[in-house]
Specification:
The complex is a heterodimer of chains A (406) and B (79). Helices cover 72% and strands 0% of the residues of chain A. Chain A is mainly α and 406 residues long. Chain A is globular, with a radius of gyration of 23 Å. Chain B is an all-alpha fold. Chain B has one domain: ACP-like (Non-ribosomal Peptide Synthetase Peptidyl Carrier Protein, Chain A), CATH 1.10.1200.10. Helices cover 58% and strands 0% of the residues of chain B. Chain B contains four helices and no strands. Classes of the chains: A mainly alpha (406), B mainly alpha (79).
């Protein structure tokens, strides 16, 4: 069984070999890429049960899409059942440890397969868009679908491409030639990506672990709080460099193969509010949750009990969206807290700007935002809030606090 | 009133700005208050004004006001 990661030798070989093979594969480009993707995915299966589960998880949405995408009432019911089942199976396969019912169901960790969390997003995008894609005459073959889902560049952790963008990009006729300059800049990006993951973020990770261990040993609550802050800063830096580095490697790697992936980061720590932060950090996730979680929720709220209460509806929908996104990030209770904190953060940031706009008016608000003191306050507050809320990612902070409370 | 003027009226209300004026090429970039969050609010208000429904996917694909007007007109005639 293969452990597939950007740090493995296997990935490095693919990174170099696949672009060369694809350039010479001519009309079989799609088939060659498909063979590589299926081979990588299949090699990661732990046993026959995991292979069967993975195959079902990948193939069912493709064959279900035409059945659930009509306008009729039957199709609507089928659509609802499909997404409820999909969600239930996802939660079961991820094995959320705080969903009590799963404790009574048989489960084996081998059932989990590579990229499960991210496959969900792509499958939802494909099935939701199916009617539109068909109408727009976008290619919908099984081979294209599998390449979209299983592309070895994005299967581990995104960026979350949209089906239409992926296919249009894959078949574009003006794939930019890689001259020496472009090649150098792509390799530079890949190498810098590796440095960020395996040097910078590795260092940050060891420092955050070091400080995390010292929190309970600090002696008094004030010292503990200071050490907690230091730990959370290193942990946030770890998450940032690890993810940005990963994205640099896969975006660069795909570029060598003539594919353009979505950019996932836009200097998030320059943000002045939590809303802005999420527009700059893990952008492909933010946009996905905006389209498939926030939009349906706020539409339901505005056409229902929140009619004419725009701002309240926006806050409620934002909170629910980020709570769900937080829960998606991981299977233990820490991620639930993380989701609550992200939800609270974006709501507070909306309330803050809303109040100021009411107080100063639109033009006054712009002037207010230009003040140096305000700028510093907003930057510091946003960075601090991100670090503290991200401290629940990767560490058992709840366990730590319960231990210290004893 | 034609679709464009009615849409303009709705946008002025939603974005709380009486100076908004639109043409077919207007995009979210041109109107400051029009971001990914307020977009949904605009959609709901337009649905009310024109008594029609849009799917999540339809409104995601809109590139400019011209396309929006075409979509509204199509939905209106369907209704």
């Amino acid at each position: 069984m293969l452990e597939f990661s950007v740090g493995g030798l296997f990935f490095a070989v693919l990174l170099i070999l696949v672009p060369v093979v694809l350039r010479f594969s001519g009309i079989y480009r799609r088939e060659v890429f498909l063979t590589v993707n299926i081979a990588v995915f299949a090699l990661t299966f732990k046993d026959i049960a995991s292979a069967a589960t993975a195959a079902a998880w990948v193939l069912i949405p493709y064959f279900a899409a035409p059945l659930i995408s009509n306008n009729g009432r039957k199709s609507l019911i089928a659509r609802r059942i499909f997404y409820v089942l999909m969600l239930a199976v996802f939660l079961y396969l991820m094995h959320y440890d705080w969903i009590f019912i799963f404790r009574y169901l048989p489960y084996s960790p081998v059932l989990k397969f590579l990229g499960l969390s991210y496959l969900l997003f792509r499958e939802v995008d494909y099935t939701m868009q199916y009617a539109y894609l068909k109408e727009s005459k976008v290619r919908l073959s099984l081979a294209d679908y599998l390449n979209y889902l299983l592309s070895f560049y994005t299967i581990m952790a995104g960026p979350i491409m949209r089906y239409e963008d992926f296919v249009n990009d894959f078949y574009r006729e003006d794939i930019p030639e890689l001259d020496t300059d472009r090649m150098l800049s792509v390799f530079q990006r890949i190498i810098f990506g590796y440095i960020q993951v395996y040097v910078i973020s590795a260092l940050m990770s060891s420092w955050s672990a070091y400080w995390f261990d010292r929190i309970p040993k600090a002696g008094n609550i004030f010292k503990s709080a200071v050490i907690y802050l230091i730990f959370s800063i290193f942990n946030a830096l770890f998450i940032y460099f690890n993810f940005v580095g990963y994205c640099d490697i896969v975006v660069g790697g795909a570029r060598l193969s003539g594919m353009t992936l979505k950019e996932n980061f836009d200097r998030p720590y320059l943000a002045r509010s939590m809303v802005e932060f999420w527009n700059r950090h893990h952008i492909s996730l933010s946009e996905w949750i905006r389209d498939y979680i926030y939009s349906p929720i706020i539409k339901a709220l505005l056409s229902g009990s929140f009619r004419k209460r725009l701002f309240e509806a926006q806050c409620a929908a934002l909170f629910a969206t980020f709570l769900i996104a937080g829960i998606w990030h991981g299977t233990n209770l820490n991620y639930l807290v993380y989701g609550l904190l992200e939800g609270l953060g974006v709501v507070l940031s909306s309330v803050y700007s809303n109040r100021l706009k009411k107080k100063y008016g639109k033009k006054g608000f712009k002037e207010y935002e230009k003040k140096t003191g305000v700028k510093i306050f907003e930057h510091v507050w946003t960075c601090a809030y991100v670090c503290l809320s991200f401290s629940f990612v990767g560490y058992d902070v709840i366990g730590l606090m319960m231990g210290m409370g004893k | 009133m034609d679709t464009k003027s009615r849409l303009e009226k709705v946008m002025r209300e939603v974005f709380d700005d009486e100076e908004i004026s639109i043409n077919d090429e207007t995009t979210a970039e041109d109107i400051e208050e029009w971001d990914s969050l307020t977009h949904v609010e605009l959609i709901v208000a337009v649905e009310e004004e024109f008594a029609c429904k849009f799917s999540t996917v339809e409104v995601m694909k809109l590139k400019n006001v011209g396309e929006f007007i075409k979509l509204i007109d199509r939905k209106k005639t369907n209704a």
